[in-house]
């Protein structure tokens, strides 16, 4: 798929009078096409990535073709597989162990839900607060003071981030062939075979 992207001579020199160019692929073109497809929500289904599952595994399962794995990365705007794709349980544990000296140490504190005797929510759950956070409310006969906090460990924090990554979008199997064909057509739209020159982001906007 990357080979289909147009070439770009990009100036990486901070001095515009002393240009230093490098030949690269114009990934900004990729972003422009992605925005076009995202306006059509009927093309996609939500998918939950299973433990240890890779894009090619999902592609094989859904499309009977492992080489459509790039469509999964494209649709979810994943440019760095190692940081943006959900980690397996083993990979997550290794990542947390390497990142934190105390994996089970406290990352921060969040609130637990507090309701009065009538069922009214006094304090919603999930708000990041100091450990000493308190809430006071009148229960009809007296004032009640509560300390509705619970600690979130470094591991739990990373686990929550990883869980969010597990929810992805995939192209519906019934339209995958059409999607691939149209995507390649859009990829070379405008100036096939032409190498663009860009010094700033504004130079290479589509």
Can you put this structure into words, describing what you see?
The protein is 33% helix and 24% strand. The protein is α+β, with helices and mostly antiparallel strands. The chain has two domains: 124 residues, no CATH class; 62 residues, no CATH class. The strands form five sheets. It has a three-stranded mixed beta sheet, with no helix packed on it. Helix 2 crosses helix 3. The longest helix has 12 residues.
Note the main attributes of this structure:
about 210 residues; alpha+beta; 2 domains; three-stranded antiparallel beta sheet; 7 helices; 12 strands; about 35% helix; about 25% strand; disordered C terminus
